[in-house]
Amino acid sequence: NAGVTQTPKFQVLKTGQSMTLQCAQDMNHNSMYWYRQDPGMGLRLIYYSASEGTTDKGEVPNGYNVSRLNKREFSLRLESAAPSQTSVYFCASSPKLGAFGYTFGSGTRLTVV
Amino acid sequence: AQTVTQSQPEMSVQEAETVTLSCTYDTSESDYYLFWYKQPPSRQMILVIRQEAYKQQNATENRFSVNFQKAAKSFSLKISDSQLGDAAMYFCACPIQGAQKLVFGQGTRLTINP
What we know:
The structure holds two protein chains of two kinds.
Chain A: E1 4-7, E2 10-13, E3 19-25, E4 31-37, E5 43-49, E6 56-57, E7 64-68, E8 74-78, E9 87-94, H1 97-100, E10 103-104, E11 108-112
Parallel strand pairs in A: 2-11
Antiparallel strand pairs in A: 1-3, 3-8, 4-5, 4-9, 5-6, 7-8, 9-10, 9-11
Chain B: E1 4-5, E2 10-14, E3 19-21, E4 24-25, E5 33-39, E6 46-52, E7 60-61, E8 64-69, E9 74-79, E10 88-96, E11 101-104, E12 108-113
Parallel strand pairs in B: 2-12
Antiparallel strand pairs in B: 1-4, 3-9, 5-6, 5-10, 7-8, 8-9, 10-11, 10-12
């Protein structure tokens, strides 16, 4: 089925470890996004890529890096995980925000111990 | 600052009754769409309804409708004939920065009582 695929769905890291969250969409969307969801804080934007070849910081970029590998793929990297990065991470995509809103992946629950 | 506020962290309603979830927003965009998303326990984010700010008529999708008051920057979601499957977190969202991205409210957890 067409959509946004995120891997992994669950991950436990030790403080200081690194990992990359993968996201791929097969809808030929231009824009891709990474959000984190924390209780009582809604979804906060980490990074986004308005089009292939561009990336921009969102509201909470510290401790993260991203790569727009091609039009389909947008990865999020934690270089040195911290307990404050324990969260649920969502990848989303959009053809052009406007009327379309986002199509979301199923999320990654990350725990840093 | 461009923000979205959902003032009700939790709401509950009896099955088959009607419930309204509140949302206020602030955006500098001139032409934009507003969105409500549903997040059931499965964690998947699902688009419920969208409203074009230039349209006077409130959007409706089956049992879901909005009460959009542009001057007041208010965008509430009404769920009629509530069903057990409506139990979820609900988020409203509005675009910012040249409509390149969405900012989300804090969410309202809706419980349906049988």
